[in-house]
Amino acid sequence: MNRFVLTLIVLFATLTMNAQDEILQKYSEMGDMNTTVVTKNMLSRVPLDQFDMPGLSQMIQRIESIMILVSRGDKAGKKLGTKLPKQLSGKGFKTVLNTKQDGRDLTVMQSKKDPSRVVMVMYQKPQAMAVSMQGDFTNLEADLEAITSQK
C-alpha cells in the first residue's frame, strides 16, 4: 500500500510540474531520459553540512521543488544540452550565467515573467542534465556571483 501511495504522490508532483512547463514535459517523455521530482520536504533531509559550499543551505531553503532530467543516450543528451536553452529563450527565459569549463557547458536561465522559475542545463557531450527549480530566486544573479567568486 505504501508503494502505491508513494507512486501516486510522485505522479501528482510530476503532473503538476509538467503542467507548469510544457517544454520540459516534452523532454521527460523521451525514451532516453530519466526524470526525478524532488520536493521541499525531501530537500530538508539532505545533509548539507557534508558539502563545502558557503550559502548552500540558505539557497536550498528557498527552493520549493525541483525537477531533474538526465539523458541516457547520445541523441537525448545532444537535444537536451543544445536545444533546451534555445527553446527556453523563446519562451521568455533570460540567460543569467553561461560558462564552459573542462568540456562542460553550464547555462542558468531565469523566467522574465516569473523569477521564481530557474532552469540549469549542464552539458558534457554526450550527456546532459537539466534542473528546473521553483522557489525564491529574486536575487539569483547575486547568489551566482557569490558562488562563482569563491572558486
Q: What does this protein structure show overall?
A:
With 151 residues, this protein is an alpha+beta fold. Residues 10-20 have low confidence and may be disordered. The protein starts with a helix and ends with a helix. It is globular. It has one domain (2-149). Helix content is 42%, strand content 33%. The longest helix is centred in the first third of the chain and has 19 residues, at 2-20. It is built from 6 helices and 6 strands, in the order ααβααβαββββα. A hairpin with a 2-residue loop joins β5 (117-124) and β6 (127-135). A 6-stranded antiparallel sheet has the order 1-2-6-5-4-3, with helices on both faces.
In short:
The chain has 151 residues and is α+β, with helices and mostly antiparallel strands. It has six helices and six strands, in the order H-H-E-H-H-E-H-E-E-E-E-H.
What descriptors fit this protein?
six-stranded antiparallel β-sheet; globular; 6 strands; 151 residues
The description of the largest β-sheet is: 6 strands, antiparallel
- What is the N-to-C succession of helices and strands? HHEHHEHEEEEH
Query: In angstroms, what is the radius of gyration?
Result: 16 Å
Q: Please give the oligomerization state of what you see.
A: single chain
Beta strands, count: 6
Share in helix: 40-55%
Query: Uncertain spans, ≥5 residues at pLDDT below 50?
Result: 10-20
- The total count of helices amounts to 6
User: Tell me, what's the shape?
Assistant: globular
Q: Overall mean pLDDT score?
A: 77
Strand content: 25-35%
Tell me the structural class.
alpha+beta
Query: Strands across the major sheet, in which order?
Result: 1-2-6-5-4-3
End-to-end distance, in Å? Answer: 47 Å
